[in-house]
Amino acid sequence: MALTEKQIFIFICIQWFAYTSATGNETVDVLVDRSISNLQKIKLKMKLFSLVKKMYGDCLPCRSISNSKSCDCTAIKPMKDCLEFLQNGYTKNGIYKVTQKENVYCDQTTQNGGWTIFLRRQDGSTDFKQNWLDYKYGFGKLTSEFWLGNEIVHDLTKPSVAPKKSELLINMRMKGQTKLVFAKYDTFEIGDEASKYTLTISGVSGDAPHSTGSLSFLVYHNNMKFSTYDQDNDKASGHCSTHYGRVGWWFNGCYRTLLTEQPQNRGQEAMKTLIKSFKRSDENQYNHILV
């Protein structure tokens, strides 16, 4: 069961009491002494902060402006998605638990934050040659390369959760380049399994090569069903997945972009996709999905 921030704070205080008692620290009684001076209070806060820092680093309570590392924020009460966490002041990049009881990786810094990452490809360390069930439920590690899972992405982008729309952002680095480029889509949704996780996507902008145009980049895959090597749902006469690395994707006939493709040389792919994510639309804000 996830802990609330109040419960976490109480736990820290208990740990602090145990720590100070074990070390013979004389300030252990200060917490229950209402007559202490302001200077003593400051010293107490400094000691408590130092202990929290020692125990949890920069991650508790996942509100730090500094994002030098990823944090495990799963002890925080689950919320609807990464955008809701951001709107409640949780600004750390890291792993959070959403209301579907699933762990997701939230990017709270890229383009104003609130992004739920559902695909990360960076060095070829994870094998994306997976079957239908693996792509359905997800695979890999949230702190490394992974596919979040078609089921949870469907749950987070379906109209009942994202009544306006979800936005998709793709950040990538071209081979031999240091600058990140991006493509952003105004509408992003994945259907349920009965629809074969049909992709709905439109409204592209950005500075990534071929990121604009009615048949360019991911728009070419609009209304396509998801395919894996054991489920052929593409429009080609052959089987796109088996011809292109046995990876899963919304193949058309076959593709204009293939972000799950295995790098030929680890870390040397022509288009290195770093982050792919989405963000829910909420009134005038987008629900971000970052890929």
TrEMBL record:
Query: Keywords of this protein's UniProt record, alphabetized?
Result: Coiled coil, Disulfide bond, Glycoprotein, Secreted, Signal
Which SMART domains does the record match to this protein?
FBG (SM00186)
- Keyword Magnesium in the entry? The reply is no
Q: Name one GO biological process term.
A: positive regulation of heterotypic cell-cell adhesion
| InterPro entries the UniProt entry points to | FIB_ANG-like, Fibrinogen-like_C, Fibrinogen_a/b/g_C_1, Fibrinogen_a/b/g_C_dom
From which residue to which does the signal peptide run?
A: 1-22
**Domain of life, per the record?**
Eukaryota
Classification via SUPFAM superfamilies: Fibrinogen C-terminal domain-like
Instruction: Look up the record and report any one GO term of the cellular component aspect.
Output: fibrinogen complex
- Per the database entry, which stretches of residues form a coiled coil? none
Record's subcellular location: Secreted
* Any one Gene Ontology molecular-function term assigned to this protein's record: extracellular matrix structural constituent
Question: Domain Fibrinogen C-terminal spans what residues?
Answer: 73-254
Q: What is this protein called?
A: Fibrinogen C-terminal domain-containing protein
Tell me which species this is from. Clytia hemisphaerica
